[in-house]
Amino acid sequence: MPTFGALLKKKKTHSTGSKDTPASPTVAEASSTLPSENPELNRPAGRESSDKAGSAVNANTNTSNNNNSHSIKGTSPDTQMNPAASTNQQSAQGANSSSHHNSHHHHLPHIGSIKSIINPTHGHHGTTQGNADANYAQTSQVQGSKSQARQTKGKYSLEDFSLQRTLGTGSFGRVHLVQSRHNHRFYAIKVLKKAQVVKMKQVEHTNDERRMLQRVKHPFLITLWGTFQDSKNLYMVMDFVEGGELFSLLRKSQRFPNPVAKFYAAEVTLALEYLHSQHIIYRDLKPENLLLDRHGHLKITDFGFAKEVPDITWTLCGTPDYLAPEVVSSKGYNKSVDWWSLGILIFEMLCGFTPFWDSGSPVKIYENILRGKIKFPPYMHPDAVDLLSQLITPDLTKRLGNLHGGPEDVKTHPWFAEVTWDRLLRKDIDAPYVPPVRAGQGDASQFDKYPEESEAYGAQGEDPYYNLFTEF
Ligand SMILES: Nc1ncnc2c1ncn2[C@@H]1O[C@H](COP(=O)(O)OP(=O)(O)OP(=O)(O)O)[C@@H](O)[C@H]1O
Question: Which atom in ligand 1 lies closest to the alpha carbon of residue 192?
Answer without folding.
Answer: 21
